[in-house]
């Protein structure tokens, strides 16, 4: 199962990477005469309202959808990690202030907030990415803050402190590396969710703008003309669903594979252990 | 089925336990044979991973997820062939277990009295009668104010008291065989002594047959009649308790005794055993102990030593045993 | 470095309840000796260990190292004083699973002022590994690939890397298998003999303490009930509690153990018939 999911994701990433290079040059040129031709051997997934090949638009759009999502997740993860580390090392006041800001961020419905922000920033793929980063980081920060707190109570952290190591070193070498496995799982699942959010933003018009073939934008364009050709909206819809599911499943699988492995090496029980007095 | 006086109560023959793993079956217990007569007390000692607990659990039929082969006979009746329902009956009526961690083995939501009485209630005795029997049992095991303690909950008791409750629950149905798996390990020194004394006294009063599993040789010195040493899944040595401590025939038992500091001989040099016990998947060739054995010779790395029966109580698996004087003399 | 504990009190509070973990503890741990602290669970011996290192702040009294307190006791935002090191009970959880043995030890080696060159640090890591009976090539391995006894020795090498003057060992062998306990105990004894370090050995195992320590303190309910040279305390204990502890210890001698159990049997018979 794990390898099936992994190969699906590898294939998706490959398409996103090389798609635009192998796509025919005509992918963005409209030819009204070809509009709404049904799937055929010439156009595997048919053509859209402007006669552009739906399959190749999807392939080219994969880069926008998937790489934008990776960028969003990377962006808010960096911010989230920085905030969590600052909160964990900065003393009680810094911790309280940062966590209350996080709580405020968590209290807003993220997608609605992102829509508003993207609109204020003028709409487009860039603003949509910024908006999603801005709404996403509190989740990472809050989660990581809790994990850091838990990890910092492990005996080996106490041992590192007693050795006289500086706070920064204990955090960067001991606490953080032993806390990130939770995030790895979250990242995988998040990429799917962000692809969906990005599509949603594009669909309502504050995300990627035509002619960028981001998948949400494709759905948006196609929504106006479902009556003439069902394939035009179906193809990107299914592509989004498949990709989101693949990443979500990857997250599940990573959780199952990563967690017990790491946990047992940290807290393997011994048979003859006595309770500490 | 009337048990013949000459057959031992418990007869384990060629018992093997293996765990499934991606690289084939991992042998955890390898062809262990044991005989325990009625009223006799056998101790099985070994380090973690030696398979001693698995032997105990296999006797009680608790290793359903592992591959168990060989034979376990209780009073002449084969236990390994029984269905899990039949085995439940055997555990209800004939075999009881006391485990290392009394807190994990007691139900935190049931009163102490109800847990001790449970085996009787399951066996169909009346509630009131069972409860009274439980209170008598708790009292016999030295629990102060047994009547009020019976209506309390496990968390209100200290570790030693919990272990007494476990013992009460184990003994109330008058089992023929008591299996005690590290019964004193998690306890403090003085509580350890109390539990040991109590276990000895109640076992003596009932002429109970006991199999005790432990990593601590000192604990069984006064309690057991015979001691079996396990290493890497095999029983490598068995002898009467006195001779095993005074003149251990197997180098491993000898090494274990030399490695522990003794309160009665504080000046003695500690001789550590080099290396670490092997893992089940990576057993050394020949005798499993040879890489750590101070007496090992070339042959030990090649030939697996066969079981030698030196006299009616001593058996060992070793090419270079330290034979006790009386065996040599014969 | 000698350690003087004078009138130390430590109270743990949770909500409205409070628990006196250390009650007016006064103790001497002489320079260059191994001092044992024995006691059962709840005696406060582990709390004392943590106070000695400075993980826990004490409520009253003072702990002096060669006559002056450690920095951790003076300021709230402290960095630990490397002159006092702690060995934990469970070596399974006291080493960072993501760092190799070499990295773990080198981290301490770096803290030594003369650890300028990478070559010196590397040879010092090998030296420390060999000191605890491991191989220099073990530096590349991760903690999970070592056994419990080996891990505990890595923990000792790591603690020694900062060249401490006091080593506090909190139940260093009680999580280990019988056959490997002696490896760790012998390492501690050799350390004290060769480097003259002051060692505090906290243990529930009286035989271990008797074997290794020249002085011993017996703790019960947060108090030190008896202390003195090991032989005096073990051979002619003054306090009833010490005596009851010593009586309770099992020894690997069937005759003596049987006699003890028989004594209890007679007492029980007598009580039941009476």
Description:
The complex is a heterotrimer of chains A (277), B (330) and C (274). Chain A has helices at 2-22, 54-89, 91-107, 110-120, 125-151, 155-162, 167-175, 181-203, 215-223, 230-266. With 277 residues, chain A is mainly α. Chain B is of the alpha/beta class. In chain B, the strands form two sheets. Chain B has an eight-stranded mixed beta sheet with strand order 6-7-8-3-9-10-12-11, with helices on both faces. Chain B has a four-stranded antiparallel beta sheet with strand order 2-1-4-5, covered by helices on one side. In chain B, a hairpin with a 2-residue loop joins strand 9 (226-231) and strand 10 (234-240). Chain B is globular, with a radius of gyration of 21 Å. Chain C is α/β, with parallel strands linked by helices and 274 residues long. Chain C is 39% helix and 23% strand. In chain C, the strands form two sheets. Chain C has a six-stranded mixed beta sheet, sandwiched between helices. In chain C, helix 5 links the parallel strand 6 (166-170) and strand 7. The B-C interface holds B 47-48, 188-193, 196-197, 200-201, 204, 215-219, 221-223, 241-242, 245, 255-257, 259-264, 266, 270-273, 276-277, 292 and C 40-41, 147, 149-150, 177-183, 185-186, 204-208, 210-212, 234, 244-261, 264-265, 268. Chain C: GO terms for molecular function: ATP binding. Chain C: Keywords: ATP-binding, Nucleotide-binding, Transport. Chain C: InterPro entries: AAA+_ATPase, ABC_transp_ATP-bind, ABC_transporter-like_ATP-bd, ABC_transporter-like_CS, Oligopep_ABC_C, P-loop_NTPase.
Mean pLDDT of chain A: 81
Low-pLDDT parts of chain C are: none
Radius of gyration of chain A, taken over Cα atoms and rounded to an integer in Å: 23 Å
Task: Supply the helix-strand structural class of chain A.
Answer: mainly alpha
The rough form of chain A would be described as elongated
SSE order of chain C, as H and E? EEEHEEHHHEHEHEEHHH
Query: For the CA atoms, what is the radius of gyration of chain C?
Result: 21 Å
Largest interface by Cβ-Cβ < 8 Å: B-C, 41 and 44 residues
What's the helical proportion of residues of chain C? 25-40%
The helix/strand series of chain A, from N terminus to C terminus, equals: HHHHHHHHHH
Beta-strand residue fraction of chain A: under 5%
* Strand percentage of chain C: 15-25%
Write the layout of secondary structure elements.
The complex is a heterotrimer of chains A (277), B (330) and C (274).
Chain A: H1 2-22, H2 54-89, H3 91-107, H4 110-120, H5 125-151, H6 155-162, H7 167-175, H8 181-203, H9 215-223, H10 230-266
Chain B: E1 10-19, E2 26-36, E3 41-45, H1 52-59, E4 67-74, E5 77-78, H2 84-93, E6 95-98, H3 102-105, H4 112-122, H5 127-140, H6 146-150, H7 159-171, E7 177-181, H8 189-206, E8 209-214, H9 217-221, E9 226-231, E10 234-240, H10 241-246, H11 251-259, H12 298-302, E11 308-309, E12 315-316, H13 325-329
Helix pairs in contact in B: 4-5, 4-7, 7-8
Chain C: E1 3-14, E2 17-29, E3 34-38, H1 45-53, E4 60-65, E5 84-87, H2 101-109, H3 118-131, H4 148-161, E6 166-170, H5 178-195, E7 198-203, H6 206-212, E8 215-220, E9 223-229, H7 230-235, H8 240-248, H9 254-273
Parallel strand pairs in C: 3-7, 3-8, 5-6, 6-7
Antiparallel strand pairs in C: 1-2, 1-4, 8-9
Helix pairs in contact in C: 2-3, 2-4, 3-4, 4-5
């Amino acid at each position: 199962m794990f390898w099936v999911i992994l190969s699906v994701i590898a294939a998706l990433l490959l398409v996103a990477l090389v798609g635009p290079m192998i796509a025919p040059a005509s992918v963005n040129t409209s030819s009204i005469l070809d509009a709404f031709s049904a799937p055929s051997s010439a156009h595997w997934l048919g053509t859209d309202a402007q006669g552009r090949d739906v399959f190749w638009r999807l392939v080219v759009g994969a880069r926008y959808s998937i790489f934008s999502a990776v960028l969003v997740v990377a962006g808010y993860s960096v911010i989230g990690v920085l905030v969590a580390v600052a909160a964990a090392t900065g003393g009680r006041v810094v911790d309280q202030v940062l966590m209350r800001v996080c709580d405020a961020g968590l209290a807003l419905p993220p997608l609605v907030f992102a829509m508003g922000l993207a609109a204020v920033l003028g709409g487009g793929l860039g603003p949509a990415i910024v908006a999603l980063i801005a709404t996403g980081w509190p989740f990472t920060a809050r989660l990581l803050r809790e994990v850091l707190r838990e990890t910092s109570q492990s005996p080996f952290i106490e041992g590192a402190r007693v050795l006289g190591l500086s706070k920064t070193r204990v955090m960067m070498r001991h606490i953080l590396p032993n806390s990130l496995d939770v995030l790895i799982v979250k990242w995988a699942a998040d990429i799917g969710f962000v692809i969906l959010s990005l599509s949603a933003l594009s669909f309502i018009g504050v995300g990627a703008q035509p002619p960028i073939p981001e998948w949400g934008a494709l759905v948006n364009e196609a929504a106006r003309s479902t009556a003439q050709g069902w394939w035009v909206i179906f193809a990107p819809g299914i592509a989004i669903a498949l990709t989101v599911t693949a990443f979500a499943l990857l997250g599940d699988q990573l959780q199952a594979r990563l967690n017990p492995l790491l946990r047992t090496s940290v807290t393997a029980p011994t048979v003859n252990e006595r309770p500490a007095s | 089925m009337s048990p013949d006086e000459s057959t031992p109560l418990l007869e384990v023959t060629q018992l093997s336990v293996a765990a499934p793993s991606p690289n084939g079956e991992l042998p955890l217990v390898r062809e262990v044979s044991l005989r325990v007569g009625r009223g006799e007390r056998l101790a099985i000692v070994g380090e973690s991973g030696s398979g001693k607990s698995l032997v105990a659990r296999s006797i009680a039929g608790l290793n359903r997820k592992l591959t168990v082969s060989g034979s376990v006979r209780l009073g002449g009746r084969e236990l390994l062939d029984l269905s899990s329902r039949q085995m439940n009956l055997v555990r209800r009526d004939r075999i009881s277990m006391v485990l290392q961690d009394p807190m994990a083995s007691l139900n935190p939501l049931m009163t102490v009295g109800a847990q001790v009485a449970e085996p009787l209630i399951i066996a169909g005795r009346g509630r009131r009668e069972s409860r009274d029997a439980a209170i008598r049992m708790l009292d016999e095991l030295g629990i102060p104010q047994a009547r009020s303690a019976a209506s309390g909950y496990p968390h209100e008791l200290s570790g030693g008291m919990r272990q007494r409750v476990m013992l009460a629950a184990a003994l109330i149905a008058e089992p023929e065989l008591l299996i005690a798996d590290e019964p004193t390990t998690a306890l403090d020194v003085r509580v350890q002594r109390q539990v040991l004394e109590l276990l000895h006294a109640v076992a003596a009063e009932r002429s109970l047959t006991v199999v005790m599993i432990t990593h601590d040789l000192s604990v069984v010195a006064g309690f057991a009649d015979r001691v079996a040493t396990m290493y890497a899944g095999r029983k490598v040595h068995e002898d009467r308790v006195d001779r095993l401590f005074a003149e251990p025939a197997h180098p491993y038992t000898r090494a274990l005794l030399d490695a522990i500091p003794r309160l009665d001989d504080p000046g003695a040099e500690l001789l550590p055993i080099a290396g670490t016990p092997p893992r089940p998947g990576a057993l050394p060739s020949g005798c499993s102990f040879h890489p750590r054995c101070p007496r090992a010779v070339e042959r030990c790395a090649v030939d697996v030593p066969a079981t030698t029966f030196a006299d009616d109580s001593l058996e060992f698996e070793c090419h270079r045993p330290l034979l006790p004087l009386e065996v040599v003399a014969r | 470095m000698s350690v003087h504990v004078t009138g130390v009190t430590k109270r743990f509070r949770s909500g409205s309840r409070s628990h006196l973990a250390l009650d007016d503890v006064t103790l001497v741990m002489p320079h260059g000796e191994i001092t044992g602290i024995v006691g059962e669970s709840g005696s406060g011996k582990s709390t004392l260990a943590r106070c000695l290192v400075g993980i826990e702040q004490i409520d009253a009294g003072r702990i002096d190292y060669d006559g002056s307190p450690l920095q951790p006791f003076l300021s709230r935002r402290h960095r630990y004083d490397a002159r006092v090191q702690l060995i934990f009970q469970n070596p399974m959880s006291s080493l960072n699973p993501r760092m190799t043995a070499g990295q773990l030890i080198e981290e301490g080696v770096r803290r030594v002022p003369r650890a300028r060159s990478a070559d010196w640090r590397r040879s010092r890591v090998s030296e420390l590994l060999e000191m605890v009976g491991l191989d220099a090539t073990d530096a590349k391995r991760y903690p999970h690939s070592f056994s419990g006894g080996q891990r505990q020795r890595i923990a000792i090498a790591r603690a020694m890397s900062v060249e401490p003057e006091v080593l506090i060992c909190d139940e260093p062998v009680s999580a280990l298998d019988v056959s490997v306990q002696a490896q760790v105990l012998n390492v501690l004894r050799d350390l004290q003999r060769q480097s003259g370090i002051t060692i505090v050995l906290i243990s529930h195992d009286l035989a271990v303490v008797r074997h290794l320590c020249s002085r011993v303190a017996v703790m019960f309910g947060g108090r030190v009930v008896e202390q003195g040279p090991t032989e005096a305390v073990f051979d002619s204990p003054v306090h009833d509690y010490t005596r009851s502890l010593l009586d309770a210890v099992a020894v690997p001698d069937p005759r003596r153990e049987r006699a003890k159990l028989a004594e209890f049997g007679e007492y029980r018979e007598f009580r039941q018939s009476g």
